[in-house]
Amino acid sequence: MSHEIRNLEPKALWNKFSDLNAVPRPSKKEERVIAFMMEFGKKLGLDTIQDKVGNVIIKKPASSGMENRKTVVLQSHLDMVHQKNNDTDFDFDTQGIEMYVDEDWVRAKGTTLGADNGIGVATIMAILESTEIKHPAIEALFTIDEETGMTGAMGLEGGMLEGEILLNLDTEEDDEIDIGCAGGIDVTAEAEYDEEEVPESSVAYTITVKGLNGGHSGMDIHKGLGNANKIMNRLLFEGFDNFGLQISQIKGGSLRNAIPRESVAQVIIAQVYDDAFVYDMQQIVNEIKTELATTEPALEIVFEKQEKLPAKVMPPVAQFYFVRAMYAAHNGVYRMSADFDDLVETSNNIAKVEVGNGKLSIQCLTRSSIESSKMDLANALRATFELMGCEVTFSGSYPGWTPNPKSEILDVLTSIYEKQNGHQANVVACHAGLECGILGTNYPDMDMISFGPTIRGAHSPVERVSISSVQKYWKFVLEILENIPQK
């Protein structure tokens, strides 16, 4: 791990972030980071427990003179999104994140950085370890599996915590204080089809869509970024309609909460169409690149002729319905909020598409701050995919977090922010899925707020966190802890 990271200010936070990033911590595989956190708490001599689903809770008594303040829950999630560039040789299951400093940013070498939510975790660790920071009684809650289902927050039972205030350290704009968030639901469409033999006199191609920015399917969904699965389907649709292209395999995207950056398809066409296919498809590629020139300047779409033909392909009838359903399925912003300026209310991310060996799977994450709107879009997707013969399932549904503009802790944060920065913070609701809404189901009386430093490109290999913003955020956290209301 680079010493330049550990020497950044505040050193206590960056050293804990470096320690944490040395531990592999993919969602659903948090055993090592859970053990790491349990050992950390016990070494400090603090009350440290692991609940039945794997969340870690570390309790620290109030510092001297702060015993009459309300108990605060400091909360962040332990898991991180694992994404890497295709040309990056890296094993997330065994290697720690390789970080470096780039001017005002900390980045990772070809992978996600884990600032989401590692900076929050490191903040809490630094506070727990300190003997100098003034604070009320603290219950540090480290949840698991936030990125792929929020099962940690869902599994936290009532009665585990006594705190009256919860500070969730998991947002990505340092001038924002979040008081609400979107809920979400996974929409999965699956079908089987009978493959057919490759016709004689066929030519095989590999089509690759790459170089897209990707990003967080909640926080970045409104930015007009390219979705590799939708771009690929546009190519396949045109190739099928104009040249009888047939699909052998597709692999596009990876995680439901990441806007897909790459897609690869194995296809065939009749040899007689070869020259015309290459020419016409290049025109379509040029059109797509022109459309996305501003938001996706590094987009690449490559057609490579293959010497070996695939064994089997999707039959024309099945493919007819597939490419049309993919075209019709909504991706991106569905509705903007009528109550908050510039807030996405409802959206969908067509996150992962797999086709081959007689099976197809389309995986989406639908988000909304309004439950009925969430289900309206989920049902629209369901209807689209059922019309092509898919079996559609809903899973992993989690609630949004309803804003409370009269929050007592909100008044504390807004006052401190304005005093420290000379201007007001933006009090907002966000389109990401924060754990506050879920935690509130078992702790309905807990006063919750969410904030964090500036992070860019979360859930993608261009993820980075601002060094100066972390310094600003750290100062903010410390003064908040000093000004927690009395019991």
Kindly report how far apart the N and C termini lie. 43 Å
- CATH class of the largest domain, anyone? Alpha Beta
Query: Residue share in helices?
Result: 25-40%
Low-confidence stretches: none
Percent of residues in β-strands = 25-35%
Structural class: alpha+beta
Number of strands: 25
User: Which whole number gives the mean pLDDT?
Assistant: 96
Q: Globular, elongated, flat, extended or rod-shaped: what is the shape?
A: elongated
| CATH fourth-tier homologous superfamily of the largest domain | Zn peptidases
Count of helical regions: 12
Radius of gyration, in Å, reads 24 Å
Total tally of structural domains: 2
Biggest beta-sheet profile: 9 strands, antiparallel
- Kindly identify the CATH topology of the largest domain: Aminopeptidase
Report on the architecture of this protein.
- The protein is an alpha+beta fold and 487 residues long.
- The chain folds into 2 domains: 3-181 and 402-482, 3-Layer(aba) Sandwich (Aminopeptidase); 185-398, Alpha-Beta Plaits (2-Layer Sandwich).
- Helices cover 31% and strands 28% of the residues.
- It has 12 helices and 25 strands.
- Strands 9, 11, 13, 15, 16, 18, 19, 20 and 21 form a 9-stranded antiparallel β-sheet that branches. Strands 1-2-6-3-7-23 form a 6-stranded mixed β-sheet, covered by helices on one side.
- A hairpin with a 2-residue loop joins β19 (344-356) and β20 (359-368).
- The radius of gyration is 24 Å and the shape is elongated.
- It starts with a helix and ends in a 5-residue tail after the last helix.
- The model has no long low-confidence stretch (mean pLDDT 96).
- Keywords: Hydrolase.
